[in-house]
Amino acid sequence: MFALFSPAIAAGGGIALPKAPIDDSDTESLQRGAALFVNYCMGCHSARHMSYGRLAEDLQISPQQLREHLIFGDAGLGEGMISAMSPEEAKAWFNDAPPPDLSLVARVRGVDWIYAYLRAFYRDDSRPSGWNNAIFENASMPHALAELQGVFARVEDENENENNNSGGDGYAIGKIQLKRISEGGMSAPEYDAAVADLSGFLFYIAEPSRRERLRVGYLVMAGLILTLVACYFLYREYWRDIS
To answer: How would you list the strands of the sheet with 150-156, edge to edge?
Structure first.
């Protein structure tokens, strides 16, 4: 199912991106994505435009569950999801290139890009972080989900292979072949599903009102259609009496 492609192309690489299998109406998937974000991303990244209170309301999480599982520290429900890493620490650890806030990354990059990016890390000892990425070459970000996915190494492949399915011991991204060199805590299908949950969560926080906006939009359209039908029958009734 992950071999389906969208028209999106990886920046600068001409690589067709796999379609992210997300469903932002799936509350349980968004809950799992929120947990992954808090446990694996918020050590470095913030989502300061997403408040914990809004998150709890939209994802049907009680304040108690929120504090037990998603809030580390004394942040209030009205506060944004801010990393514990200070700006000074971020600059020092990442060579004056602090990790970006991820509130709007899905709107800037696209959810397909995020999904592909999180599945495209490989070991590269020439990089300061020890990692590189087949979608975003020379990225400074280490592979935060390595313990789940396992470790891959890059193998050059002269024949372009657009199979982006990460199952088995390796997979290709464009002309870059990645080969598994150590196992992670998840199987390949489990990891792909987890990345889809995380990608879906980032898609959600980029526009939290999207689901409500669509719901209201459908209701308005339904109202307009009913009004049009009523006007049509009123029109027929009016002209029948005149004729």
So the answer is: 131-133, 121-123, 150-156, 176-183, 170-173
pLDDT at position 230 is 86
Task: State the pTM of this model.
Answer: 0.79
Give the start-to-end residue ranges of the domains of the chain. 5-208, 214-243
Cα–Cα distances (Å) from 208 to 57, 106, 205, in that order, read 11, 12, 5
Instruction: Say if CB 10 and CB 113 are below 8 A apart.
Output: yes
Q: Would you state the pLDDT for residue 168?
A: 58
Q: Are 59 and 31 in contact (CB under 8 A)?
A: yes
Q: How far apart are CA 57 and CA 38, in angstroms?
A: 17
pLDDT in tens, 183-226: 999 999 999 999 999 999 999 999 988 777 777 788 888 888 88
Please report which residue ranges of the chain form alpha helices under DSSP H.
27-36, 52-58, 63-69, 87-93, 105-109, 111-117, 146-149, 188-206, 210-242
Q: Does domain 5-208 have CATH number 1.10.760.10?
A: yes
Question: Would you tell me how many other CB atoms lie within 10 Å of the CB of residue 98?
Answer: 20
Question: How many C-beta atoms lie closer than 10 Å to residue 160's C-beta?
Answer: 12
